[in-house]
Write a structure and sequence with these properties.
Blueprint (H helix, E strand, L loop, with lengths): L1 E4 L4 H15 L2 E4 L17 E4 L7 H9 L4 E4 L9 H6 L3 E3 L6 H17 L1 H9 L17 E5 L3 H12 L3 E5 L5 H5 L3 E2 L2 H7 L2 E4 L13 H5 L5 E5 L8 H10 L2 E6 L21 H8 L3 E3 L8 H19 L15
Parallel strand pairs: 1-2, 1-3, 3-4, 4-5, 6-7, 6-9, 7-8, 9-10, 10-11, 11-12
Helix pairs in contact: 1-12, 4-6
Bound molecules: nicotinamide-adenine-dinucleotide.
C-alpha cells in the first residue's frame, strides 16, 4: 500500500523502513509536518496515512484525507483521543492502532522518575558537574515499605505494580475494572478517596477520556496525603496543571514527575532551545526543583519502536488484504 507517514522523525524512518523491507514491502513516503487540516493535502494519491500522538484527526482533516483518496488511518501509537472516530467511520476511513508495544518501556520510565525525584538524581547530576558535593536538599526516603497508588491497572499499571512490589511497597489500585493478575499480586483495589488519602506515591495509568479529564484537580489534591509524589506518564489531560502547581506551592505535593503535559503538542518532540517558550504554565513548572519533566519519551525504547513498526505495517497489510484486523478502532466511545 502507498502510505504517507506524517510527523516522521529519523527514528520513525529507520524502524519503519527496516520492518517494511524485511517483511511487508509497503511503499512508504515520509513527511516531517504534523497531520492537520493544512497538511492533509500531502496525502493526495496515498491510500493510507500513518500518524502519531500529536497528529490531528479532526473532522476537517479527515474530510481532506477522504477527498485525497485515503481509506486507512494507521496510528503508530496506542491512544486515539486525537481522532474523530465517528467522522472517520462516516467517511469510510478505517482506523487502526498499536494497542501495546512495550508496556515495560513506560512502566520502567515511571520507576525511573520515581527514583530520580525521590533521591534528587536530576539535581545531583548538575551539582557534581559544578563541583558541588553538598548533600543539603538531596534527602530522600526508603521506597521499601511505602504505599504506591496506581490509577489504571491495565498493561502498564500492572507492570508498575509488579516492579513496585519488588521494592517491597504496599500497592493500592483504582480502576473501573479489576485486573485479576493485579489482585493475585496482592494489589488492593480501593476507591479514589482511599487511594488519595493513603498513598505516598500516586501514578496515573488510565486513558484520557471525558471521565478522566482533569481527574487530578484541586478537589483530588485536597484529599491526598501531604507530601505525596505524583507521577503522570499517561496523558497530560489527566492533570489540571494549575491545580497541581498550587499543590506544589502549598507542599501537599512533595514532587511531580510528568512525561506528558496537557499542552504538549505545542512543545514536545521538537528542539525549541533557540525559542522563547510562550507557555507560562509550563515554564512555571520547570522552575520547581522538585518537578521532573521528560518530553513524552516513556515509550522510547528499541523494543517499542520495533514493535510499533511491525504492528503498524501488519495492520496495514491486514486491511489491504481485506482481513479482519484485531487492532481496528471502532467508533463506539472510548472507555
Ligand atoms: P490499558 O488499556 O492496558 O490500561 C488502561 C486501564 O485504565 C484499563 O485497565 C482501564 O480499565 C483503565 N481505566 C479506564 N478508564 C478509567 C477510569 N475512568 N479510571 C480508572 N481507570 C480507568 O492501557 P496501557 O497500555 O496500560 O496504557 C495506559 C495509558 O498509558 C494509555 O492510555 C496512554 O495514554 C499512556 N501511554 C503513554 C505512553 C508514553 O510514552 N508516555 C506510551 C504508551 C501509553
Amino acid at each position: 500500500m502507498k502510505v504517507a507517514v506524517f510527523s516522521a522523525k529519523p527514528y520513525d524512518r529507520q524502524f519503519l523502513q527496516a520492518a517494511s523491507s524485511s517483511n511487508y514491502h509497503h511503499e512508504l513516503s515520509f513527511f516531517e509536518p504534523r497531520l492537520n487540516q493544512d497538511t492533509a493535502i500531502l496525502a493526495a494519491g496515498f491510500s493510507a496515512v500513518c500518524a502519531f500522538v500529536h497528529d490531528q484527526g479532526d473532522a476537517h482533516t479527515l474530510q481532506v484525507l477522504a477527498s485525497c483518496g485515503v481509506k486507512l488511518l494507521a496510528l503508530r501509537c496506542a491512544g486515539f483521543n486525537n481522532i474523530d472516530l465517528k467522522t472517520a467511520a462516516e467517511l469510510g476511513i478505517k482506523v487502526v492502532r498499536v494497542p501495546a508495544y512495550s508496556p515495560y518501556a513506560v512502566a520502567e520510565h515511571t520507576v525511573g522518575m520515581i527514583l530520580s525525584l525521590n533521591r534528587k538524581i536530576h539535581r545531583a547530576y548538575t551539582r557534581v558537574r559544578e563541583g558541588n558535593f553538598s548533600l543539603d536538599g538531596l534527602l530522600g526516603f526508603d521506597i521499601h515499605g511505602r504505599t504506591v497508588g496506581i490509577i489504571g491497572t491495565g498493561k502498564i499499571g500492572q507492570i508498575l505494580g509488579q516492579i513496585m512490589n519488588g521494592f517491597g511497597c504496599k500497592i493500592l489500585a483504582y480502576d473501573v475494572y479489576r485486573n485479576p493478575e493485579c489482585e493475585a499480586l496482592g494489589m488492593k483495589y480501593v476507591d479514589l478517596p482511599e487511594l488519595y488519602a493513603n498513598s505516598d506515591i500516586i501514578s496515573l495509568h488510565c486513558p484520557l477520556s471525558s471521565e478522566t479529564h482533569h481527574l487530578i484537580n484541586g478537589e483530588a489534591i485536597a484529599q491526598m496525603k501531604p507530601g505525596v509524589m505524583l507521577i503522570n506518564t499517561s496523558r497530560g489531560g489527566l492533570i489540571d496543571t494549575k491545580a497541581v502547581t498550587k499543590g506544589l506551592k502549598s507542599g501537599t505535593i512533595r514532587s511531580l514527575g510528568i512525561d506528558v503535559y496537557e499542552q504538549e503538542s505545542d512543545l514536545f518532540f521538537e528542539d525549541l532551545s533557540e525559542e522563547i517558550i510562550q507557555d507560562d504554565i509550563f515554564q512555571r513548572l520547570v522552575t520547581f526543583p522538585n518537578v521532573l519533566i521528560t518530553g513524552h519519551q516513556a515509550f522510547f525504547t528499541e523494543e517499542a519502536l520495533r514493535n510499533i513498526a511491525e504492528t503498524t505495517l501488519s495492520n496495514i497489510t491486514e486491511i489491504e488484504e481485506g482481513k479482519p484486523c484485531a487492532n481496528e478502532v471502532s467508533s463506539t466511545p472510548q472507555t
